[in-house]
Amino acid sequence: MMTYQAFPEGFLWGGATAANQCEGAYDADGRGLANVDVVPIGKDRFPIITGQKKMFDFEEGYFYPAKESIDFYGHYKEDIALFAEMGFKTYRMSIAWTRIFPKGDEAEPNEAGLQFYENVFKECRKYGIEPLVTITHFDCPMYLIEHYGGWRNRKLIDFYEHLCRALFTRFKGLVHYWLTFNEINMILHAPFMGAGLYFEEGENAEEVKYQAAHHELVASALATKIAHEVDPDNKVGCMLAAGQYYPNTCNPDDYWEALQEDRENYFFIDVQARGEYPNYAKKKFAKLGLQLEMTAEDLVLLKEHTVDFISFSYYSSRVASADSSLKETTAGNIFASLKNPYLKSSEWGWQIDPLGLRITLNTLWDRYQKPLFIVENGLGAVDTPDENGYVADDYRIDYLREHIKTMNQAINEDGVELWGYTTWGCIDLVSAGTGEMKKRYGFIYVDRDNEGNGSLKRSKKKSFAWYKKVIASNGTDLD
Ligand code: P53
């Protein structure tokens, strides 16, 4: 057996999920409808999540996987017991906004919704699992989209503030780690899923997206302020869909292109971590002629309430080129990029690059000097259970092992400060990008298919025992 240097004491090992991808029970106990409920599986999904096709309610002839999902709502005790069996130190999950405020603009929260999350957090605490809570993971109440236009409207800041106050006061002492917006840069790539944005004919989509982004950035700063006021022990993080861009060649034009692409994503974190709009962004807005409304108070809020830590998802690195005639892109990813010939791909065409994680960790650390948290990483793959329902997912173990190795090097050889690691979809759940169940990430198999058939029975995959050992050895035993 090869042993590796240990991770720092208290390192937060765990797994991650999101409400809309696992809870189901979309209309239980007063819950309202959200954007993430009305995105079906199939060919219309992409135009809908990107805000080009309008679907504001369930329609005939479509299947909506989030309605039932894996019914975490009805299985949370069983599922958390399994996480505890693996030795999770933390569990990253998200709040369904519409369980707390079904329409989004009510004066009082829905008690049944608050009670559900209180039960979940208490269940975690029973096993010594620290909840890490994403306040919004792609969800926005449909009512706010239909009546206010989603995050393009400044009023959303108030509704979000209201949500945050309800959560911070009710869960004081039960939750200490909060993330304000999942993958905040997703607003540029999947604006309906990211921020409830739908574009009317002839609209300046860039302007709408950056105005909505400004509202989210201000809301994030406000949430940070309130979280600290309510409980000084609260730690608030931002969340980036990360993955370094590489230049396609050493041609300086390609390097410049890669830098520009990286900035498009880092822009959000630059504001959340440093507290101001970077010059390159101001110049870009001016060049594009974007008219963005920002108040003097907004800028003060941004400056005074930067995040405590930086969290991110990492699945792959990306490639940029100045040569626009190059067309060979990676398939199946909202962040389509050029293909990297040095890397292998997953069954969904996502390129696998463990060293890219070390590079991304170092870049973020060099840029911000704030503690980091990897809150998503993993391999989406087809699992085929044997006659006993067992999945021997060595491919997933290999993927995770190689990423944990470079994470270890980033900490122990490069000195990056990393608080924790939560693998994506620790229990199989619905894919955000495609709506499939077939694209599985979990240590726990869930019997359900793309059409919604299946018993929902949970069973442990081979990776379950493996991850348990990794956590028990604090990362020294990866065999
Ligand atoms: P799925 C694309 C690229 C990077 C992160 O994705 C992404 C996406 C969305 O497809 O989203 C995050 O399920 C997101 C999760 C999502 C996960 O990556 O498409 O935060 O909600 O499930 C994996 O395989």
From TrEMBL:
Give UniProt keywords alphabetically: Glycosidase, Hydrolase
Which GO-annotated molecular functions does the record name?
6-phospho-beta-glucosidase activity
Q: Which GO terms describe its cellular component?
A: cytosol
The keyword Transport is assigned to this record? no
Q: Tell me which Gene Ontology terms the entry assigns under biological process.
A: carbohydrate catabolic process
Top-level enzyme category: hydrolase
Q: Origin, by domain of life? A: Bacteria
A Pfam family in this protein? Glyco_hydro_1
- What Enzyme Commission number does this protein have? 3.2.1.86
Active site (catalytic residues): E376
Is Acyltransferase a UniProt keyword of this protein?
A: no
Query: Which Gene3D superfamilies would you find in this protein's record?
Result: Glycosidases
Q: Which family does it belong to?
A: Belongs to the glycosyl hydrolase 1 family.
**PANTHER family the UniProt entry points to:** 6-PHOSPHO-BETA-GLUCOSIDASE (PTHR10353:SF296), GLYCOSYL HYDROLASE (PTHR10353)
* UniProt name for this protein: 6-phospho-beta-glucosidase
Protein source organism: Streptococcus chenjunshii
